[in-house]
Design a protein that fits this description.
11 strands, alpha/beta, about 270 residues
């Protein structure tokens, strides 16, 4: 795929807008309500765009413990929030409902997103239980909704989980493209904010020379040069937050400093 058509640049940097806990999530703040959630996200969008990121992705990171099938309340709330926030966005945007690929595609279609990220393939032993995503239903939904332009980012080594079976990461990556039509393949570390192994990133890129491969977790100002020597782009969240803490709001200064370095690298 042509990354410039979707993201406006080669080696794109996708920055996360992490939604605070949504209605029905255990940590949801009913006093603050949806206004508090939307205000927090608006602040992050402003900081990220001022910092010069190439794209933004919404994720319901606050909805711990995570679901493997979306709840009606959280999915509806996330769709409402993205709809309210769209007017602020000046760059391409995507969505990710953790951890439901069908809900993620539905959310992307409803919101007009350019791309969507999820675990689409494989079976995992996870903190959330046995995890068996459904790529076939998700891709059929994209086709049924006439959104062939919606790019799907396949995370092939899930955080908080281990794959069942003995296929190598390179074999799983090639299979995701061949059998499940991945547009972009993502390589993650073991948890949010922890980097992917450089060796894994290289194995996947060597296996998929004609498919974009992104680093999905743990990218920071100190390792981004090495990451972009191998990867075709990255997703970044925690490092751009105040003090590098996942649960804080975005730090505009950190975002600008990071993107200044990326521009020099590119």
């Amino acid at each position: 795929m042509n990354l410039k058509q979707t993201f406006g640049t080669a080696k794109p940097i996708i920055a996360m807008v992490h939604l605070p806990p949504l209605p029905s999530a255990p940590l949801y703040d009913p006093k603050g309500g949806m206004k508090k959630i939307i205000d927090s996200c608006a602040k992050d969008i402003e900081a990220l765009q001022a910092g010069g990121v190439d794209a933004i992705m919404f994720g319901n990171e606050g909805d711990r413990p995570y679901l493997l099938k979306a709840s009606p309340a959280t999915l509806a709330a996330m769709a409402f929030a993205v709809g309210e926030l769209k007017r602020l966005i000046k760059v391409p945007f995507g969505v990710n409902y953790l951890w439901d690929p069908v809900a993620t595609v539905a959310l992307a279609v409803a919101s007009g997103a350019s791309f969507a990220r999820e675990i689409f393939t494989g079976i995992y032993d996870s903190d959330m239980g046995l995890w068996a995503p459904d790529a076939a239903t998700a891709l059929r939904l994209r086709a049924d909704c006439h959104r062939a332009d919606l790019k799907l980012l396949f995370n092939i080594n899930a955080e908080f989980a281990s794959p069942v079976g003995n296929r190598t990461i390179a074999q799983r990556a090639k299979s995701a493209v061949f059998s499940s039509l991945a547009d972009i393949v993502l390589v993650s570390g073991p948890m949010t904010g922890q980097p992917a192994e450089t060796a894994d990133l290289k194995l996947v890129k060597d296996a998929l020379p004609d498919t974009p491969v992104f680093a999905n977790t743990g990218v920071n100002i100190d390792n981004v040069a090495d990451v972009l020597k191998i990867a075709d782009g990255c997703v970044i969240g925690s490092h751009l937050k105040v003090d590098g803490n996942t649960w804080n709001n975005v730090d505009k200064t950190r975002a600008k400093r990071f993107m200044d370095k990326v521009r020099k690298i590119r």
